[in-house]
């Protein structure tokens, strides 16, 4: 529902709403969504639109019938579809729209992240509607976010939104995929996103959707742990938007956590990608999990992957191979090979220098214990 305290809202619109018939963009669902955006702005809410659909909108220009589209062709479809989609949205409004195309690197690199933040703020200050999508034309598997649910949650945290509304082809989270199980029941509210909630979520059943319910729960977890209420609602139904404007919940609401994660920890957990693994012994696991300690070289038994100082890594327990934590390593993989198992006071002797004036391999302020293992 449109809570009166929400000043800034990120609205995510899925591909099936943009191009429902595989024949390019359609006005069918976009008009009521556009009307909702207009109403929100009249009520003094700032709106950022995250619009999927570039590939779905561009597809009809290419004579390609198979379900699995090769990446090079997807990029071409996205290039033409993005243009059509922006034209469509622009025609719906009597205020200016701005195209903001992002990849994962734009959000995980500090400088680019700040640039995105400042640009969005300027656009909103000047009454422009930012319309965000992944930059699918250039994105590679390693560089892309991969789905717009997670992208929308990242945008919501970048711009300090109060709410994220995900408009889909389903009106919320069900106890099972309602397209497969007709007895599935809608869950109207979720206070905490647990392992059980993740277990309910399946993939996409549509020809154009990307992540299904799973990426929506991931997005809700990203957003709610940064203080952003998250709602999943059915964008097919004009009543959804009437409900929202009337302050009612038309789908599933995931409540913002009362104690949001500190920004640095949220960034490590939800934005940075792990480049390698540090395997540690039982004593180290105990120090990290029971005593909130920093990770020291003495507990390290193995290093996997190539990473530099400042990269994120996963900490794994050598016994049971569980993932324990994610954090920013202050040493490169090659430095860690030389100091693993050593007491901190011997680091300088092993390396011939102490690279960052600190003995912690991962400082506790830059480490998140992983609840989901
Ligand atoms: N537990 C669940 N509750 C609701 N929908 C689910 C669930 N598990 C899987 N789904 C599927 O997720 C789909 C929505 O995701 P998706 O197709 O990616 O849409 P969008 O294009 O809006 O992102 C639904 O149509 C449904 O088939
Ligand atoms: N960036 C892609 C959409 C990716 C995506 O997540 O799609 P969807 O599941 O429909 O929200 C595109 O514009 O085609």
From TrEMBL:
ATP-binding is among the record's keywords: yes
SMART domains reported in the protein's UniProt record: PUA
Keyword RNA-binding: no
Domain PUA: from-to ranges: 276-362
Pfam family for this entry, one: AA_kinase
Record localization: Cytoplasm
Reaction catalyzed: L-glutamate + ATP = L-glutamyl 5-phosphate + ADP
InterPro entries, per database record: AceGlu_kinase-like_sf, Asp/Glu/Uridylate_kinase, G5K_ProB, Glu/AcGlu_kinase, Glu_5kinase, Glu_5kinase/COase_Synthase, Glutamate_5-kinase_CS, PUA
Pathway: Amino-acid biosynthesis; L-proline biosynthesis; L-glutamate 5-semialdehyde from L-glutamate: step 1/2
Gene3D superfamilies assigned to the protein according to its UniProt record, in alphabetical order: Acetylglutamate kinase-like, PUA domain
Residues that, per the record, bind substrate: 52, 136, 148
Binding site for ATP: 12, 168-169, 210-216
Main subcellular location of this protein, as a coarse class: cytoplasm
EC number(s) recorded for this UniProt protein: 2.7.2.11
Alphabetically ordered keywords of this record: Amino-acid biosynthesis, ATP-binding, Cytoplasm, Kinase, Nucleotide-binding, Proline biosynthesis, Transferase
PANTHER family: GLUTAMATE 5-KINASE, ISOPENTENYL PHOSPHATE KINASE
Function: Catalyzes the transfer of a phosphate group to glutamate to form L-glutamate 5-phosphate.
Family to which the UniProt record says this protein belongs: Belongs to the glutamate 5-kinase family.
Protein name per Swiss-Prot or TrEMBL: Glutamate 5-kinase
Lineage: Bacteria, Pseudomonadati, Pseudomonadota, Gammaproteobacteria, Alteromonadales
Gene giving rise to this polypeptide: proB
